[in-house]
Amino acid sequence: MIDAGTVDLAAQKLKCRYSEPQRHYHTLEHISWMLRALKPDTLDQACETIELAVWFHDCVYDPVKGSPWNEDESICVWEDFADSTQSQVMADLKPCVSALIKATILHRLPDVLPEGLNALEVATFLDLDMGILSESAEAYEKYAHQIRQEYSHYPTTAYCAGRIKVLQSFFSRERIYLGYDADAMEKRARCNVEGEIGRLRSQETL
Fold this sequence. Notes:
The protein is 63% helix and 0% strand. It has helices spanning 4-17, 28-37, 46-56, 69-84, 88-103, 119-129, 137-150, 156-171, 183-204. The termini are far apart. The mean pLDDT is 94.
């Protein structure tokens, strides 16, 4: 059994991290959205693993240092917490949650998965993390603005070029979403991403 005080302290630290001033999109709102969108009935016991990954995957977020530093540091925070619980359950979950967080670096299914984690669980988690791409045009526009705020240290031309490169890396994939029932999400996401690329290109020429 995990000590309640250890869990409460970790929860408070996570809330503080997700409330840091450099964050505009990668906040508690993003975490809450992912948790609400998670469907426990389709994943059985895997939900505990995914929920932990949701909470810890962006707990370290420095837009200046970027990826993969953020993900690697987030994994360290997660593993330190898992060790601090002195729980065999957490020890068993540790490599699975770490693998989920690491998968957000490239947002692709890893070639090798730890025991206890399958491809559907990874796909579910990654699709949750990218869920904002398939939201309404208004919600997507808000998200795009929040990302720009997080990267305000870049001048317009440099930001547009970098952001277009990131968006095109997703748009050029055969599938943005990896789940088996994401056709509607896929269509909306591609429409939103294409629209943002167009807006960014127009800003580059100003």
